[in-house]
Structures are given as structure tokens and as C-alpha cells.
Amino acid sequence: MFAVYLPVFIMLGVATLVAVGMFTATSLAGPKNMTAEKAIPYESGSETTGANHIRMSIKFYLTAILFVVFDIEAVFLYPWAAMFRSLGWVGFVEMLLFIVILGVTLIYAWKKGALEWES
Amino acid sequence: MTTGLLLLTTALKILFILLVTVGAFAPMLVWAERRQSAMMQDRIGPHRAGIRLPAGAADAFRASVLPMRLAAAASGAVGALLLLLLAFAWAADDASWLPVSPLELTATGVGLLVLGGILDVGSKIHGMLADNGGNISLAGLLHPLADALKFIFKEDFVPPKADKLLHSLAPIITLMPAIAVFAVIPFSDVLYLEHWDAVVPRNGVVTGDVTAIPLQVANLNVGVLFLFAIAGTGIIGAAIGGYASDNKYSLIGGIRAASQMVSYEVALGLTIVPCFMIYDSLRLEAMATWQHDNGVWGICVLPITIAFVLFFTAAIGETKRIPFDLPEGESELVGGYLTEYSGMKFGMFFMSEFIEVVGLAAVATVIFFGGWDLPFVYRDGIDFPGVWDAQLASFVMGVEYNGAVEGIDATGIALAHWGVLALGVVGFLAKIVALIWFQLLTRWSLPRFRYDQMMQLCWKGLLPAALGNILFTGVVVLLGEGAMQMAVWSGTFVVVGSIVFFFLPALKRDPRVPAGAQPAAS
Amino acid sequence: MSTAGFLLFLVSAVLAIVGAVITVASMRPLRAAMGLLLHVVALSALYLTLNAHLLAVLQLLIYAGAVVVLFVFVILLLGPAGEFAGDSEKLIGRVMGGCSAGAVLLLTAFSLSRHDAEFGPVGADYGTVEGLGNALYRGAMAPFEMVSITLLVAVVGAVAISRVRTAREKASDAADAEARKLANAGGSN
Q: Do C132 and C178 share a domain, yes or no?
């Protein structure tokens, strides 16, 4: 296990090092002249009005929930796909049921208008 | 394998990956993209950045052109004369009158010819440098380097009301996974250290006490899942970058980006499940080996052909590139979640996007295009079984052929282990370049989608299609060998057909553009 | 456990605790979510020390890639409204929180000291894709199928909470509102 995962940790470490290195380089090398004009949030030149936070459509939340649900489905599919040949028809029927029920989930969300973005 | 060797090989492999991705492909991509956009808009594009040589260098270069060309001509002439002498000697079948041996004569002649060629190319380069005023510009290839330097020395601007910690964390969280996904991508077959200059058997089975070094950073049991797990964390970078910037554009861009990326991640994950079912593994190196051993690239098996189309669409959505670049749609949101970023922090987002493009091409290469597998290249050398066999070779060449190396066909060219592996790496990189080029073509061909169209394409198009494809694949695999054969034939038919009917016609010149209307410069 | 494994355990355990503390203690919701991300990633490394390869990656995939993203989404949607103003004055809440945390710790320590588990070497396919797949698709078919029902319920709940309307429902809503307005107008006249 050690020999298999050590390179992964080294790779993660190197990736972090590259990212942090670039970050540090630009924070150290760049000049810093903050002015009052510069500090205003950039909104194409017009004065910003109201709070800097705006209300978002609830659709984004719904998308996130659908994402979690189908991500979990995908996670169940991966090990199944990797040993599909050894599971045979039994495994196929098992997954057919699973996919059909999730298909019903998708159809339900579809018919309920959860996938529409017009309004 | 000892720990020292493990550390050494790991360090070398990571260095290779960094050089190829961060060092070569990402800057080249920046250049290619800008160059292509300049071409389409009839501009010259990036070409000015260069290394300025000291004053007088241009004159010195111009002065050196003529002597160099003369030297090249002289060297080439003498070399040709020597080879002519050799030819005479060979024709007369008498080498005794030569002052030196034929071998030395050949070496000198070829050497002089090569020297002449080098001098000639050098004189041309000097001429170009002189015309350029003593600047080394390499057609603008140095432009990305200048960009990077500029990024580093720009003001590192953080909005005063922003959450500084999260604002700084976002580019790091985005760039890190983009680099780390390369850990599981195999760039060639397994290297047997003790056999590096021997010919290994075609089936790759090496007996005895050998050190097998997989040419990928980590050979994980979970394989491609690691890739998804790491890439998934990149979403958070865009979201928190948008939130922490204290700007409406950033916020909208951030949430759009996150929403789009999660949607397309699901589609991406589900589209390649059929590949796992056919390759019977989650390990990327096992997928490449399957394609090599079965002699067919994945794209030519019908379920995987379908999967490739879906996967590529989803992957472009996942990398937020045109036509799916809604989060940064500059006509609506300025720069989206990048609006309040400057300097190298902006550059890090930019860079991670380009590294993702390379990573995506690498993954697609391994899963759909055989990875390091090249046609007619086997583990023991280059061979053309069934096409160029001993009988045909004897007929054409008029020479009797018999087995040269055990395992390889009589007419094959045996290659040492390292040569085969190097060919694999070259093939792998070439396929990546081809796929990147295909992505650039897509980018410049399609207009941007509307947000609702993009989300519906994902949830109502790609997702159900991917689920259907999984079930279709299940039936094909379970029906046995015959169905698989059918799938291979029909998949090949589809691939060849789409190349002939869609791709080749697209390469023709647009009849609306007259031939003379090419931009004169660049 | 090898030295390297112990080292990994030590680092990831400390990081998990740090992440958990940030999650609970941070006043800004998004920073708390980042603490949770750190905790989840460290937890996945802890699974690795137990040889659970697949579980470690699934932990990253589901928790770091999906659940934390969902939290970040909600925080983005709520905005500053979700910022915790901080009512650190309430002493009783702190005392109660501290007491329950202490009680959980004590109980865990007690039950661990009573329980004498055997920790032995595990099989070759323990925690791998094949090992877990066999256990799941051969040994636990019915629970596996039920997961899909649970996911269906989750989507039904989300749709209900977010009150999305189909075009027809919207039209009927508008008609209702119109009728009510007419009725009100008639009543006042």
C-alpha cells in the first residue's frame, strides 16, 4: 500500500507546491497601490447599487440536489461496471432495476419542471 | 523495488508530467488559441514578444549570412564529391586506390553533408533574425512566457471588502487538482528495468526477477475514480472565488460555474461507464493494455463510439470552454468569477483551464484512442502481420526471408524495449496534440449556448443518453463474442464514415473565401 | 501498521481534528465549509490507513465533490443572510455543548476500553473495487436496490421544498390570482 500511495501523495504535494509557488511569486513581486477608485467593485463602470449579494434562483439549489443524487448513482455504477462480466445477467438485471428507478426520478424531476430554466 | 528507486522514478515521472503539461502544452495552447483567433480576424496575432539581443546584433547576423551560406555550399560540395568517389570505387569494385577506408570515407562525406545542411539552416535563421531587428521571436512562441512574466509582476489586487483568505484559496484549489489528475494517466507500457535494451516478448510476459516500473505516477486499484474525485474538488475553487470577490458579476459567475460543472460532472462520470464495462476494469493502464492486446482502439467499438461523443461534449462543458463558457461570458458578466482577480492569481485560473484541456485530451486518449498503442507497433518491435508477411516480402524484394528474431514475424523489425516504450510516449503525445487541436476547432466553430439550453442539453440529453448507453453496452457484452464482433464492425464503420463524410469535407477551403484573400503577414 | 502508515494516520488525524474545529468555530459559513472540506479529505486519508482504497476515493468523490459542493451552493444562495451574528453571551448553551461533547468523549473512551477487538491483517482484495463490489452486488442486493428508492425520495423532497412550478401550474396560479383580484375589486366597490 505504501509503495502504491506514496507517489500519489508526492504528486499532490508537488501540485500544491506549484500552485502555492505561483501564488507567492505574484503576491511578492507585484506592486501594491490601492486607491479608493480601485477598491470599488467593478461593474462595467457604473456605480454599484444595493448590497453586493443578490438573490439567486432556487433552481441552482435543485440542480445541486440532483447532482448529489446522480453522483451517488454514478458511484454505485463504477464498481459494478468494473466487475460486470463476472456478475453476468444477474448483475445486469440488478442494475437495470436500479437505473429504471433513477430514470423514474429523472422523469419526475423533468415533469415537475425542475429541469426548466425559462423563468 | 527499493524505496530509493521508487522515489527516484516517481520524481522523474512527475518532472516529465510537469514539463509536458505546465511547461510545454499549456503555453503552446495559449499561443495556438491566440494565433488561431488572430488568423480568423485577419490579424497578425502574438508575434512581437521576443528576446532582444544587444545592439549591433542585427548587423552581425546580416554580415554572417553570406559566409555561412558559402561555407554550407563548400561543405556540401566536398561531401558530395567524397560520396561520388565512393560510388566510383564501388562501381569499379576496387577500393585499394582510395587513401582511406570506405567506411571512413562514408562517415566523412555524410558528416560534411549534414554540416552543410546545418549551416544552411543556420544562415536562414540568421537572415530571419537580421530582418527581425535582432529579436528572437520564434513566431510568437515566446509570447506565453512574456505573459507569465507579466502576470507575476502585475499588481496583486484583492478587493478590500473581500474575504481575503477565501479569495486567495480559490486559485490554489482550482489549479492543484488540474495538475494532480495526471497522477493516474499512463504515458507508456510497463518498463522492465533489467530488460531495457533487450527485446521483450510480444505478450509482455517477462520471467525471472525483474523490476517492473509502470510509466504512470501511481498505479491505483481505483484508477479512474481517483481522477474524478480529485477533479471534483476543483468546482469549489470557482464557487468560493466568486463568493469571496464581493462583486455581483463574480457571484453570478461563480454560481453559474459551479452549477454547470456539477451538472456536467455527473454526465461525464456516467458517459464513460460503458468503457469500464467493456475493458472490465477501472484502471487506466488496464484499459490501454486491453486495447493493445485486442488490437482495436476503444473508439471503434460501437458503445464506446457513442460514449466518446457524449464524453467529449460533457468534457467541454466541464472545462467551461466555448461553447459552454457561460460562467465567463464576457458580454454578460465581464469575467465571471474571475472579474476581481489580477496578476498570477488570474493566471492560475487561466492555466488550470488549459491544463484541464490537456488532461481531458490525455484521458480521452487513454480511454478511447488506445493510449500509447500505435498500429503495427508491438512490444517486440514493428510488424505488419497479415499485410506484409514473409511471402509478400520475398516476392517484392526477391530475397528469401526467414525468421530473424524469435517472436517477431520474419519481416518485422525488432526493437529494443526502450525503443518501443519511447515510440509509445511519442504516439501518446501526438494523440494528445490531435485531440487538443480538435478541441480548438470546436471552440472556434460553435457559438455560445444560452444557459437554459446548456443545462437542458446536460440533464435532458447527455444524462438519459448515457444511461441508455450503459444498458445497451450491458446487453452487447452479455450476448457474447458475436455481439462484440458486430459492435466492433459497426463502430469502425461509424468512425470511418464520420471521418469521410463530416471531417474531410470540413477541411476543404471555404468557397466563399477567394484564394487571394489570405492575410499577407504572419 | 508500518511507520509510514502511522505517520499518515498521525498527520491526517490532526488535520481531521483541525478541520472539524474550523467547521464548528468559524463565524463565516463559507470558511466553515472549507473546514469541512479539509476534514473530509483528511478522513479519506484515514480510510487509506485502514486499507479501504475504494472507500477512501468514494469519500472524496461523494463528500468532498458533492456534499461540500452542495453546502457551498446553499451558502452562495443565502449570502450574507446566512452569516452567523454570534450570540456568544449565552453561557448556558456553551456549558451544555461542552458537557455533551465531554459525555460523548467519555462514552467512546469507556466503550473502547471495554471492547477488545482483534486488528489483524486483511485479505488481498479487502477494500479494493472487486472486494467491495462482491460484497455489495452479491451479498447486499436488496439494500442496494433500496438505495435507489431513497434517492427518489430525496429528489421528491427537494422538488417540494424548492416549489418549482410547471407551466400549467403557473398558468392556473395566475388565473387564481386574477380571479381573486377581480373578486376583491368587486367587493370594495
A: no
